[in-house]
Amino acid sequence: MAVVLITGSSSGIGKYTALEMARRGHRVFASMRNLESARLLRADTQKAQLAIEILQLDVTDPASVVGAVQRVLQRAGAIDVLVNNAGRGSIGVVEDYTDEEIHSVLETNFFGAVRTTRAVLPAMRARRSGTIIMMSSVSGLRTFPFASVYSASKFALEAISNGLRCELRPFGIRVVLIEPGNFRTRGGINMHFPKRIMPGSGEATSDPLYATLARRPLNPLPTFPLGDAHEIARLAAEVAESDDPRARYLIGEDAQHLMELDSEEFEELVRQRMKA
Ligand SMILES: NC(=O)c1ccc[n+]([C@@H]2O[C@H](COP(=O)([O-])OP(=O)(O)OC[C@H]3O[C@@H](n4cnc5c(N)ncnc54)[C@H](OP(=O)(O)O)[C@@H]3O)[C@@H](O)[C@H]2O)c1
Fold this sequence. Notes:
Blueprint: E1 3-6, H1 12-23, E2 27-32, H2 39-47, E3 52-56, H3 62-76, E4 81-84, H4 99-127, E5 130-135, H5 148-168, E6 173-180, E7 183-184, H6 208-214, E8 227-228, H7 230-241, E9 248-251, H8 253-258, H9 263-275
Parallel strand pairs: 1-2, 1-4, 2-3, 4-5, 5-6, 6-9, 7-8
Helix pairs in contact: 1-7, 3-4, 4-5
This protein binds NADP nicotinamide-adenine-dinucleotide phosphate.
NADP nicotinamide-adenine-dinucleotide phosphate (NAP) is lined by residues 7-8, 10-14, 32-34, 37, 58-60, 85-88, 108, 112, 135, 137, 180, 182-183, 185-187, 190.
């Protein structure tokens, strides 16, 4: 039985991962930035007669991160697995973002994961064991136009995870990247857009051509159906239970297909689609 801390457990992949880990007998601390969003997880937990401990953790708030990690350590004595899942999608052309908007996407998707990782490391290092799962994305390996800021946050997450993996291996701590394609969650509803392109914001996109281009399909590949996010939860649990997990797991038919193209082939495809 492992002690598992998950960020962003109010919906989607984080919620499914909390339930899957609990079903397998692990002690789960499901964290979320707003405890009022715990209703869905509480209902699912009760229905499945599982025990999950819910706690507040906003990855953008250092005091909240440290406080949550301390509470888990006080209650359980250790953290075996951290799932850095909290994140938000963002769509818009780079020029339409303010600096603050770019910062806020990176603050959640990159700094949030780094901050939470750094908070659990002293306890993991002392025990010479632990697994850190980073919920990255195929967007951390290939950049889709109009999702460049989101991609930048996931590329940064990939880079630091690759470095951390080597730094932490001597301490028995594993760092594993999960790189999903498109899966059905609340990610679409929770999507962030630069204020400039929000209807009613009173501002306009910097150039009308952007608006025309942005209506073109974002994904340059033939359409694959959205994946079932429970699959990612099962994968995260398998990684948590593995003695020798791989460095990265690409998941989703679309992601697999995409990564069969090299980066030049991918860009060529994007160029063709943008001309369409
Ligand atoms: N779904 C996909 O196709 C897909 C593909 C690739 C990667 N991913 C990654 O998978 C992760 C989960 O996304 P999802 O698809 O499951 O979307 P989701 O249903 O929107 O879940 C995102 C979760 O992150 C939480 N969150 C946002 N900001 C937070 C913060 N500051 N502190 C703590 N929690 C915060 C959200 O909480 P609130 O309810 O409070 O907003 C929510 O629980 C993300 O990192 C995403 O980038 C998803």
